[in-house]
Amino acid sequence: MRNKIKRGLTSLVVAIGLLLALATSASGQIAHTASSAEFGAQVLGGQPASQVVWSDPSGEIGSQIVGGRPASQYYDGLSALEYDSVTPPRDDHMTCTAVLLDDPAIPGRVEWGLTAAHCVAELPAMLARSGPSVYRDGVFGTPLWVPVKERAFQLRAGNLDRTLVAPLPIKQVVIAPEWEWIPGGPDPVDRKPAADLAMVRLSAPAAVRGATVADAEPLPGVRVRLVGWGRTSNQSAATPTIANELRTRIVQPQACAGGDISVHDLCTDNPAGAGACNADSGAPAYQQAGGRWQVTGLVSRGATETCGGSPDVITGLAYYTGWIEAVMQDRLPYLPVTAAQGGDPGHPTIRFSTTAPLRWQSQFALAG
Predict the structure, then answer these.
(1) Buried/exposed code over 255-290 (b: 16+ C-beta within 10 A; e: otherwise)
(2) Global pTM value
(3) Averages of pLDDT over each 10 residues, the chain, 368 residues
(4) Of 3, 45, 112, 317, which is the most exposed, with the fewest CB atoms less than 10 Å away?
């Protein structure tokens, strides 16, 4: 079933007006918007983080997504994905959220991270030519588009206030082999994984405490926390400098059918109209396991015109752990990005690629 994501079209019309009319940020730049029409680093109804400390499994956190709250402590690996661009002039533009992964061989060091594929992939030529109308139905992304080749991507990690830490340049992007710009299938829960997932590699390892990936998909009812730097209001195009979070829970996948949910995606509730928003794309969904916060998924998309208007689709990570580990260990050959994934953007400093599909673990094999 083709997803009826109208949030993108409506919110982008609002965003265009806001970008033209709102005051610029403190640095003199355009007010931040997200590269995804469905989500933003700030959860609507969330709260911003009020304190910056290393994550403590027993601690409480609140960051503000639309309807969320400020985060009171730093979660392992939490990162802001920004870019500098010459055309149009933007500096430290907040585009999405990401999560850096712990290096098992050297704890406390990170080199690889995860974000949503649509945050770092180029628009296919057909979609780029079609204009905003293509966003009315069944497409990730936004017509407010800066070509990927013009984006100098960087991550900021280690602090809830992204302005207090130095940027970490990115040298490589690896897009999940299953991912394509136009999702959709005939079923309420598509049997082909949407796989809105990409790995990013830092130009040099950094001394940041990274996250670990949960090795099992959470069941409905499990409590999770979405943490990011997305918009906190449907009426504003600005994104915060301090991370926010939403405390929510996993619900039945059918609740996200309007968001074109697929097998191995997760669905999170939108309590009291709270949910992810622009720039929350790629934001980690954390769950507590074994005395530590682990990342179990990444914010991907929604199904309504407004942030928080529906449950959110989260790319579940347990199914992809084998692929993630293989990429981190350089065990898979790199392949050119496909046309359906947007093709090679021709970036001057960042290598873009995909890989052949990994033979997934047998417990995740689809029946029939």
Answers:
(1) bbbbbbbbbbbbbbbbbeebbbbbbbbbbbbbbebe
(2) 0.77
(3) 33 32 28 29 42 27 44 86 79 88 88 96 73 42 66 93 94 95 71 92 95 95 92 71 90 88 91 80 92 93 79 94 94 94 94 86 39
(4) 112
